[in-house]
Design brief:
The complex is a heterodimer of chains A (296) and B (289).
Chain A (H helix, E strand, L loop, with lengths): L1 H24 L2 H23 L2 H8 L10 H25 L2 H4 L3 H4 L6 H41 L4 H7 L2 H18 L1 H13 L4 H20 L3 H18 L24 H23 L4
Helix pairs in contact in A: 1-7, 2-4, 2-7, 4-7, 4-10, 7-8, 7-9, 7-10, 7-13, 9-12, 10-11, 10-13
Chain B lengths: L1 E12 L2 E12 L3 E5 L6 H8 L6 E6 L8 H4 L3 E4 L11 H11 L5 H9 L14 H13 L5 E5 L7 H14 L6 E5 L3 H4 L5 E6 L2 E7 H7 E6 L4 H5 L5 E5 L2 E7 L3 H5 L3 E3 L3 H10 L1 H7 L1
Parallel strand pairs in B: 3-7, 3-8, 5-6, 6-7
Antiparallel strand pairs in B: 1-2, 1-4, 8-9, 10-12, 10-13, 11-12
Classes of the chains: A mainly alpha (296), B alpha/beta (289).
């Protein structure tokens, strides 16, 4: 029993080291979103300095059609999430191909680390690490944005307390915490597919990842003359954001406050579970392919 | 204890037979040289032993099936499968951190002590190191692991003479003991001939020779004959003959040494000459077949 517990502990400890190894090799996993966060903060600062007094006055007065101050904050978080999804996809395409290209796979395979542990550590980057990176960066970025925008208001003769009273950052962050786990699970089949292609393709992983879908869609349109799969695919691609962040997942109106959150609805979506089953299958296949693959 | 046991080990790539049913048994503490010409199947055999490739036939390494249990097997097995294959993006210090993290039998202080004798700095990136230095680093990492089996597949390929000699000197001086088993495939026969206890020669996917060094010394003899006795020596059926400085040097397999010494000077052949002698037999076999 105690042996069982200690070996399980060792298994997880190894996994943590593998994840750390991934971050050593791919600092872009956090540097790219961090760069976006810094850029967004500076852009926000520049915009606060240059926003015409009229526009700001109108918003402060609550005039019709005026832009709420929180909008930039929401957009910057959205950009951060999309960046992390793109970086995660590029990371997955490289994750199992790079080690064969530079033959370092022979070194990794000389370690007492199973192929399952290796693939899981690579899956953990987009599915676990990137959501945590996004949350950390979003909070830091928003705080930096408030600081810079307050500075801009002071420099242009406005009272920053007016800004603070109109920003509900805690709600933004709570909404992010609400959506991030769902996003990570929803796109799990994407990570699984990209990892499988990366384990299998000798080169041009991006091409191999997209080609089957492109071929399928062209066939659907030309031969079957309908676009059911096209639309299903498109709904799925947007679903990770639309399901948690539009009211009832309808894709029409964005949620606007805690009352619109439906945490019980998300885990009951059948698409989510179909996706997770597909992801599990793709991961098992990736493990098998990685085990059998020799260096390029 | 048997460390490696192979029975009818076979591997084909498409239509090409890389290993054609190999039987092999390697015991604890043996230092085995796996020799053979290019394409003989040495690397394939080592890959199967390391669990890097599936195979037909029976194969057990330290009692495990390497293909199904590579992860746990690697706690007791170390290998260098090729020179200079450490990840180029890594820093030297990171390789130590990583191995301390994932390898339960890795002794970091030992690796650091071994590295201190080289010019490899802990802060350097592997891509900044020369091929010889990468090999020194890899050897230090591996020698710091308390493994039962060490597999080296052409570990010194492409290194200059100095690094090659240093590699085997370090291995011999600090690693070889009575318990550890080493299987090494190399063309550096001069460097390894004094450390081997066993020699396995592969040729076209089959075992051409498998013997201990003592057996080989008893079996093979090298005779240097003068031209006038050459015909008599030829009649005894040498494996190979080469002429240098007016004398002919022949290698014999299982020919009584007393009969040979009547014809000239008899010695035990070096591994290098013996290997060439064994390979010299090949065209004759092929034309006979």
């Amino acid at each position: 029993m105690s042996h069982d517990v200690s070996s399980r502990f060792a298994w997880i400890r190894t996994l943590l080291w593998l994840v750390r190894r991934e971050l050593w090799e791919h600092p872009a996993v956090y540097l790219a979103p961090a760069a976006v966060a810094v850029f967004a903060s500076l852009a926000q600062f520049a915009s606060s300095l240059s926003t015409g007094d009229g526009r700001r006055d109108a918003t402060l007065a609550g005039a019709e059609g005026s832009v709420p101050f929180a909008v930039h904050y929401q957009i910057s978080i959205g950009v951060l999430v999309i960046t992390s999804l793109l970086v995660g996809a590029l990371y997955c395409l490289e994750a199992l191909q790079g080690e064969r290209r530079d033959r370092s796979i022979l070194f990794w395979k000389s370690m007492p680390v199973s192929d399952l542990q290796t693939v899981l550590s690579k899956l953990a980057i987009p599915a676990l690490v990137m959501p945590m990176v996004v949350l950390t960066l979003a909070v830091s970025m928003n705080l930096l944005m408030v600081a810079l925008q307050s500075l801009a208001w002071i420099m242009t003769g406005y009272d920053p307390r007016e800004l603070w009273s109109r920003l509900d950052l805690v709600w933004l962050w709570a909404a992010l915490c609400y959506g991030l786990p769902f996003i990570a699970l929803w796109y799990a089949p994407l990570w699984g597919w990209l990892l499988l292609v990366s384990a299998w393709a000798r080169r041009a992983a991006l091409l191999w990842a997209l080609a089957p879908f492109a071929a399928f869609l062209i066939m659907e349109h030309m031969v079957l003359a309908h676009s059911h799969i096209h639309w299903a695919l498109e709904r799925w691609l947007g679903g990770g954001v639309i399901q948690p962040y539009t009211i009832g997942g309808d894709g029409r109106s964005w949620i606007d406050g805690p009352a619109d959150l439906q945490p019980w609805r998300l885990p009951t979506l059948p698409q989510l579970w179909v996706g997770l089953a597909a992801a599990a299958l793709l991961i098992v296949l990736s493990v098998r392919v990685r085990r059998a693959r020799a260096p390029n | 204890m048997t460390v490696i046991r192979a029975l009818g080990l076979r591997k084909t790539y498409g239509g090409t037979v890389a290993l054609d049913g190999i039987d092999l048994e390697i015991g604890e503490g043996r230092i085995v040289g796996l020799l053979g010409p290019n394409g003989a199947g040495k690397s394939t055999a080592l890959q199967a032993i390391l669990g890097l490739t599936p195979h037909e036939g029976e194969l057990r390494v330290l009692g495990r099936d390497p293909w199904r249990e590579r992860g746990p097997l690697m706690q007791d097995v170390c290998f260098i499968a090729d020179v200079a294959l450490l990840p180029r993006w890594m820093k030297v210090r990171q390789t130590l951190d990583y191995m301390s993290g994932v390898h339960p039998r890795f002794d970091r202080s030992r690796a650091e002590a071994l590295l201190a004798r080289t010019s490899v700095r802990l802060g350097a990136r592997i891509r900044e190191l020369s091929k010889g230095m990468v090999t020194q680093l890899h050897l230090a990492l591996i020698m710091a692991v308390d493994a039962k089996l060490l597999v080296l597949d052409e570990p010194t390929l492409g290194l200059d003479l100095l690094y090659r000699k240093r590699f085997f000197d370090t291995l011999l001086g600090d690693y070889v003991d009575q318990v550890r088993t080493i299987v090494v495939s190399t063309h550096d026969l001069y460097e390894v001939q004094n450390i081997l206890t066993d020699v396995v020669v592969l040729d076209r996917g089959r075992v051409a020779l498998s013997a201990t060094v003592e057996e080989m010394e008893a079996r093979f003899a090298e005779l240097t004959v003068t031209p006038d006795r050459q015909e008599a020596a030829q009649a005894l059926g040498p494996l190979s003959a080469r002429t240098a400085f007016g004398r002919t040097v022949m290698i014999f397999d299982r020919v009584d040494r007393e009969r040979l010494s009547a014809l000239g000077e008899v010695r035990t052949p070096g591994l290098h000459d013996l290997f060439l002698g064994l390979m010299a037999r090949r065209p004759a076999e092929e034309s006979a077949a």
